Structures are given as C-alpha cells and as structure tokens.
Amino acid sequence: MGFDASKSEVSKIMNEMDPDGTGAIGFPAFQRVVEEKMAQRKPEDEIRKAFNLFADDPNGTISINSLRRITRELGEQLNDEELQAMIDEFDKDKDGKINFVEFLSIVNGQ
C-alpha cells in the first residue's frame, strides 16, 4: 500500500490495536490505522516517488526512452512521434527531457 513500516512499528500498532494479544485486528481497526498513515503522508514525497518511477535517465529526468518503457509496460502502443510530442508539451527548458520541476507542473495541471 506504499507504506514502509519497520517490525517495531508494526508491533507497536498491533499492541495498540490488539490489546488482548490475539494477533489479529478487525477491519475497522485496520482501516483507522491506514487512514492515520495516509494522513501523515507528504504530497511532495508522493510526487517525488511517482517521478522516480518514470525517470530512469541517469540525470534524473524523464526521456523519450523512459516514456517508451512505461507505455509498453502499460500496454500502450505509442510511436516515437507521439512520445516526443508528450515531452515537447511540458519541456519548458527545451532540453528534450522532463525534469522534476516540469513534472510538478504536469501533476499540478499548469
């Protein structure tokens, strides 16, 4: 679910949510834990994680090769002209790649 929890964190949560020590918690308790953890997430961190999924270029940018890989993994058949058009639309500094700042503008709809 995108949460990194150590064994000690899981033990602490279980102790709080399972005071009887049965080793199980009900769905409502589980749902509360997930809601609390989701509320603690920082949007910037989530956006950075998403960017890192796309950016496989050594410079930390999204290249046409990155987009080609991702679209193929998603089962989309886009040609290089279509992929380049996607980059060109958001490539503000005209270096042929999407950096994190440009990615933020995509995510924020700017």
From TrEMBL:
Keywords per UniProt: Calcium, Repeat
Record-annotated EF-hand domain positions: 5-40, 42-77, 78-110
Segments crossing the lipid bilayer: none
One GO CC annotation: myosin II complex
Pfam families, per the entry: EF-hand_7 (PF13499)
Alphabetized Gene3D superfamilies for the sequence: EF-hand
InterPro entries, alphabetized: CALM/Myosin/TropC-like (IPR050230), EF-hand-dom_pair (IPR011992), EF_Hand_1_Ca_BS (IPR018247), EF_hand_dom (IPR002048)
GO terms assigned for molecular function: calcium ion binding
Annotated PANTHER family: EF-HAND SUPERFAMILY PROTEIN (PTHR23048:SF59), MYOSIN LIGHT CHAIN 1, 3 (PTHR23048)
Name assigned to this protein: Centrin
